[in-house]
């Protein structure tokens, strides 16, 4: 990478190349190839407003990914800035340990209990979704100890699930690329099939396949011995795995199985929570009865880091009976983060944004992305609410993918970036998760630019 010499006149203006050089020298990136960053430089995002981002060259992008599935209210909401500033002045920090609390945390827990399924009324706060799932791991085992069933230790997750990046989070998740690094999963975690009909359903109907994927949980429980299984954890809709929408038969069958074997159900709401599906929680969209719901991301629209675990009443009562719970984070329910999350939830309510996703912009978004299904590169378009996925394939009838899986998705993502659109690729699946405040005009921009990225990708691939 070449560095433009800074002239005496513009030393105060740092150029993109200078930023990139400093970044490559001193900042080691998460989920990135840091050798590539050294060779090519990273993208530098400088500011944002509404649904748009601007990079350090002043180029504008439509953020069809809401940061990382989290900026549900869009960028630049002054109420959130003020909530943070006001709380910073009044009480910038205090902890929740040793029988202490703060007022934004009390109010936030109250608001979450109000929107959560009616049998869930207590919240344990964390700093992130990964911490929420580490908390789940410890809570679940603690729960069974208190119930005098200490043998129930195993937590079952799913292949290609995502539950965060800490040791417990990455173990509960089923990402092979993560498991390979650091000898994961840790002991006591098992994985079963995902309900990914397009990728793994073969000749089965979605209904048949959904039941079969769910039954892999029952088979695993039987193989392990049901008295040893503590919980099953899953996302309502897998996000990072590729926006995998389970067939309608899947969740009812899972619900039957966890009930039959008396196993706790942990529904990871980190993406689906706070309106993404058109309901407050994915559990409501699929009519689930979770015992625990990890939350994060949309809880604060990403403005500040905060997460938590929402507990069913019976679970919280049991845990409380057990005496001291020896778990917590310095920043559990950080008051500034809680104040921002509180205002975020209140805005979602006041402006009826979740209802809007359900009745207006969600259906429009689904209709709009469905128009891309005819494209010669597209095998399937799917989505719920404001989640969408487009599978890129070489052969639409046989679902055959291009060789070197992932390279086509990356190419399409880069073509979109050139056009000023941020999409994300998992393998060769393009994913969308725009801010919930996306409007009709943004939607037109999203579809026009996605279509253009698909065309460019298609021509590149044909040219080869
Ligand atoms: C992002 C995510 C997490 C992890 O949250 P972090 O805040 O990144 O730690 C956990 N579960 C799901 C479903 C997620 O999408």
Automatic annotation (TrEMBL):
Keywords: Aminotransferase, Pyridoxal phosphate, Transferase. Gene3D superfamilies: Aspartate Aminotransferase, domain 1, Type I PLP-dependent aspartate aminotransferase-like (Major domain). Its cofactor is pyridoxal 5'-phosphate. One of its GO terms (molecular function) is transaminase activity. The keyword Transferase applies. The keyword Electron transport does not apply. It comes from the Bacteria. NCBIfam families: PRK06105.1, PRK07480.1. Belongs to the class-III pyridoxal-phosphate-dependent aminotransferase family. PANTHER family: AMINOTRANSFERASE, AMINOTRANSFERASE CLASS-III. This is Aspartate aminotransferase family protein. It comes from Saccharospirillum mangrovi. The lineage of its organism: Bacteria, Pseudomonadati, Pseudomonadota, Gammaproteobacteria, Oceanospirillales.
């Amino acid at each position: 990478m070449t560095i433009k010499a800074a002239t005496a006149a513009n030393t105060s203006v740092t150029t993109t190349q200078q930023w990139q050089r400093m970044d490559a020298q001193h900042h080691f990136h998460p989920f990135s190839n840091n050798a590539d960053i050294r060779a090519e430089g990273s993208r530098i995002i400088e500011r944002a407003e509404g649904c748009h981002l601007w990079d350090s060259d002043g180029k504008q992008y439509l953020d069809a990914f809401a940061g990382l599935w989290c900026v549900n209210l869009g960028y630049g909401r002054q109420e959130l800035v003020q909530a943070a500033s006001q709380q910073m002045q009044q009480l910038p920090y205090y902890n929740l340990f040793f029988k202490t609390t703060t007022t934004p945390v009390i109010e936030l827990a109250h608001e979450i209990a109000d929107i959560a399924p009616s049998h869930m009324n207590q919240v344990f706060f964390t700093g992130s979704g990964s911490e929420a799932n580490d908390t789940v791991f410890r809570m679940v085992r603690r729960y069974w100890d208190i119930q005098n069933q200490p043998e129930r230790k195993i937590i079952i997750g799913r292949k290609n699930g995502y539950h965060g990046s800490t040791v417990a989070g990455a173990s509960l998740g089923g990402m092979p690329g993560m498991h390979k690094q650091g000898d994961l999963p840790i002991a006591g975690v098992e994985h079963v099939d995902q309900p990914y009909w397009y990728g793994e359903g073969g000749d089965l109907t979605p209904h048949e396949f959904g039941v079969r994927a769910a039954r892999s949980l029952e088979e695993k429980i039987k193989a392990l011995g049901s008295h040893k299984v503590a919980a099953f954890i899953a996302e309502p809709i897998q996000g990072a795995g590729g926006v995998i929408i389970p067939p309608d038969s899947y969740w009812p069958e899972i619900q039957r199985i966890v009930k039959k074997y008396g196993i706790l159900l942990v529904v990871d709401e980190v993406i689906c929570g706070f309106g993404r599906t058109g309901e407050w929680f994915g559990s409501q969209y699929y009519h689930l009865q979770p015992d625990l719901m990890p939350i994060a991301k949309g809880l604060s629209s990403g403005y500040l880091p905060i997460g938590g675990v929402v507990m069913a009443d019976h679970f919280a009562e049991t845990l409380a009976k057990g005496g001291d719970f020896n778990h917590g984070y310095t920043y559990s329910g950080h008051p500034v983060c809680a104040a921002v999350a509180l205002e975020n939830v209140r805005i979602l309510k006041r402006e009826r944004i979740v209802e809007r996703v359900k009745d207006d912009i969600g259906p429009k978004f689904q209709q709009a992305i469905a128009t891309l299904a005819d494209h010669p590169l597209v095998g399937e378009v799917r989505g719920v609410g404001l989640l969408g996925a487009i599978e890129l394939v070489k052969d639409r009838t046989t679902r055959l993918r291009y060789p070197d899986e992932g390279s086509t998705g990356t190419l399409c993502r880069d073509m979109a970036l050139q056009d000023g659109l941020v999409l994300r690729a998992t393998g060769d699946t393009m994913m969308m998760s725009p801010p919930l405040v996306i409007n009709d005009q943004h939607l037109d921009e999203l579809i026009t630019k996605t279509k253009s990225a698909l065309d460019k990708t298609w021509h590149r691939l044909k040219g080869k």
